[in-house]
Amino acid sequence: MTQDRRVVLIRAVNVGGAKLPMAQLRELASELGATDVTTYIASGNLLCAVGGSAARFDRALEKAIEERYGFFREVISRSPAQLRAALDAHPFEVLEDRFSYVYFLTGKPAAAAVKAFEATDFDSEDVKVIGSDLHIRYRDGAGRSTLDAKAIAKALGVQGTGRNLNTVRKLIELAQG
C-alpha cells in the first residue's frame, strides 16, 4: 500500500489548558500507522505519511487524542499540493505574512453561510472562503481580532484551524522534503 504525505493540523492545542506534547503526538501518529512522522513548532502541526484514507487517519487521531488527553480537537489534513493551492489562491495583498492566514476548515461551508459571512463588515479583517479554506487578512494582527475560532465556526457552520502564511510556507517546504 502506498503512503501519501500529509500535513495534519490540529486545532487549538497547547493553548487554554489543552496540552499535547509534540513528542507524544508523533508517538500517537506512529501507533496509528503513520510513517516519516515529524512535527513543526508546538501548535499542532504534524507531517507524516499515511496509508489508506486520510480522513480515516484524521478521525482515528482525533479519537486517540481524546482518549489519551481527555479533550476533543479537530484534526484537519491536507496534502502538500492542497497547501500550495491554498497559498497560491490567497486573494489578498500580503503586507506581512504573519497578518495573512489560511484557516483550514473541516469541510466546505454552505453557500448561504459563506455569502452572509463574506458580507459581514469586519472592522479590520478581510475574509474570503475558497472551497474548504477561509482566507483572512488581519490588518491589525490576529491577536487583537474578535474574529476567532468560535465566531468563525458559528458563522460558517464548520470548525477549522488557522495558520499564518509564514507557517503555511514552512509546512509546504517541510512536507516536500
Number of extended strands: 8
Strand order of the largest sheet: 2-3-1-4
**Rough outline:** globular
Query: How can the largest sheet be summarized?
Result: 4 strands, antiparallel
Instruction: Give the mean pLDDT.
Output: 92
Strand content: 25-35%
Taking all Cα atoms into account, the compactness measure Rg is 16 Å
State the helical fraction: 25-40%
Question: SS-based structural class?
Answer: alpha+beta
| Element pattern in H and E | EHEEHEHEHEEHEH
Q: Which segments are poorly predicted (pLDDT under 50) over 5 or more consecutive residues?
A: none
Number of helical elements = 6
Task: State the distance separating the first and last CA atoms.
Answer: 21 Å
How would you characterize the overall build of this protein?
This protein has 177 residues and is of the alpha+beta class. Helices cover 36% and strands 27% of the residues. The chain is built from six helices and eight strands, in the order βαββαβαβαββαβα. It has a four-stranded antiparallel beta sheet with strand order 2-3-1-4, sandwiched between helices. A hairpin with a 2-residue loop joins strand 6 (125-130) and strand 7. Helix 3 runs antiparallel to helix 6. The longest helix is centred in the middle third of the chain and has 16 residues, at 54-69. It starts with a strand and ends with a helix.
